[in-house]
Structures are given as C-alpha cells and as structure tokens.
Amino acid sequence: MSPDGPEIKLAANQRFALQIEYDGGDFCGWQVQETDRTVQGEIEQGLAKLYGRRIRITGAGRTDSGVHAAGQIAHFDAESKHDSGTIQRALNFYLPADVRIISCWQAAPDFHARFSAKWRYYIYRLHKTDKALFRQYGWRPREQVDFTRLNETAELFIGDHEFTAFCAADAVDDHHHCLVHRSSWIELADEYHYHIVANRFLKHMVRMLVGVTIDVSRGRYPAQQIRDLFQTNQKENLVITAPPQGLFLMTVGYGEFPYVDLEQKQTQSFP
Q1: SS (HEC) of the chain
Q2: Which residue is catalytic, options 23, 26, 36, 64?
C-alpha cells in the first residue's frame, strides 16, 4: 500500500512516486549538476539504464550538500512497461550504496512531489561530546548549551512568520513566509535532537534556526533579539549556520498536519 492509497491502474504514460533514503555526506546536494555528484543525478542515471532514455525526476525538496534524508519524495513520468516493484528493485540494483529506494508506487496524474506536499519534517542532531564514530551524522559545538534555553528559543519559531533573517542570502523564493507547526528540542543520553515541521523551508533555514538557538542558549544574545528579527526583511550577519551533516529530512506529508492515516487509523506523532 502506498502513502497515497491503492495503486492506480496502469496507463500508457504513468506517474510514479519514490520514497528515497540517502547519506548526503558524499553528495553535492539533491539537485542535478553538470559535474558534481548529486542524489537526483544518481537516480536519473539509474532510470536511464532501466528505460534506455533520460528521465527527469522532481523532488519534494532540494537538500543541501551534506544533508541526509530518510523520507525524501520524488516523482517522474514514464511509460508503463515496468510496474512499481520492478522499478524499485532495478533502481536499488543500479544505485550506489548511499542511496536506497524505500518504496515506489503509481501516483495520480496530478500528484506533484513538491507542490502537493503540505508539510516537511526535519531533525537536527547535536552531539553532547566529541565522537569518532557517527561524527558525520551530527554536530558537536565547542561550547556547552543550555537545554532549557534551547527550547525557549525554538518555541519562538512556531507560527506563521517572515524568515528572511533565517535563510541564505542567495535564496530565491517568491516570499519568505513559512508556517511552522512544531519546533522543539529533545534531550537524549548523549545527544540533543531538534525537531521541526513546517509547510515549507527556505535555503539553509533549519541550519540557521539551529545555529541561533545554540547562540541564545549559550548567552551570545537574548531571545528578544530573535523576536526583533521577525520584524525585519533584512538578512542578519549575526545568525550562524549549523553544519549540514547533522540535518535529516525525515518525512514529507501530503495530508493536513498533523497527518492522519484514516485507513490505518493512525496519527503521525511528533515531539
């Protein structure tokens, strides 16, 4: 059963959707580039081997270089000579070990991986101590952080806000308003995890929110200054960007948030 429900009967030309997992450490991001290795580029090469021609895929989001994903979604259009199971098996055969197709299904003709999405869910992992193992899947700041202050700052991001001060200077978007549904930190034995769900994200936005919560937690500037940044349309140099290796795209949602699977009678839970 696909996330969109029962598979649709094969047609002459069919839209397929993919759920993708990847380790972003050796990729220059999601979006295909002429010379650098990207996730989109690897999958399109696999599809070319399967179909004997170039097929372009569209992702739900363009993750940065070094960012990982457990639940990226993409779609593509192709003739129906292969069913979804065959596509998944073939792609996993052709793809390198750092990219896996978790599932493949036949989607509705108007399904769009990016524009049909209602929300995205990211996690950022913060290490409490230096690590030799798993250092490529988290960040260890040089200074200690205050967990209470982390959460007090994270709560400021919930709601519909102007995030111009919290995105890359070269971000190209029609507007910088984002509706944040969840924003909170969870403390584990040896890590802090930042969980954030929003309808959309700007370039470097999650990493900059992580950076600013850490700076407030260690007293670099007060939380009130974050409130002031929402009132400006100017980019602020004081906002640092956390490194990419701690960021994971976990889920893309196509139902209203909080996500409810009526057929399975399950509600997606978030911290």
Answers
A1: CECCECCCCCCCEEEEEEEEEECHHHCCCCCCCCCCCCHHHHHHHHHHHHHCCCCCCEECCCCCCCCEEEEEEEEEEEECCCCHHHHHHHHHHHCCCCEEEEEEEEECCCCCCCCCCCEEEEEEEEECCCCCCCHHHCECCCCCCCHHHHHHHHHHHCEEEECHHHCCCCCCCCCCEEEEEEEEEEECCCEEEEEEEECCCCCCHHHHHHHHHHHHHCCCCCHHHHHHHCCCCCCCCCCCCCCHHHEEEEEEECCCCCCEECCCCEECCCC
A2: 64
The C-alpha atoms of residue 129 and residue 8 are separated, in whole angstroms, by 49
CB 99 within 8 A of CB 43: yes
Q: Kindly list the structural domains of the chain, giving each domain's residue range(s) and its CATH number in brackets, ordered by start.
A: 13-107 (3.30.70.580), 119-261 (3.30.70.660)
68-102 per-position pLDDT tens digit: 999 999 999 999 899 999 999 999 999 999 999 99
Look up tokens 């996330």; give the residue: 3
- The 10s digit of each residue's pLDDT in 28-79 is 999 999 899 999 999 999 999 999 999 999 999 999 999 999 999 999 999 9
Residues 6 or more apart whose Cβ sits within 8 Å of residue 188: none
| pTM given for the model | 0.90
**Dihedral angle, C-alpha 96, 98, 103, 107, nearest 10 °:** -80
Active site residue 98: no
**Buried b / exposed e along 130-148 (16+ C-beta atoms within 10 A):** eeeeeeebbbebeeebeee
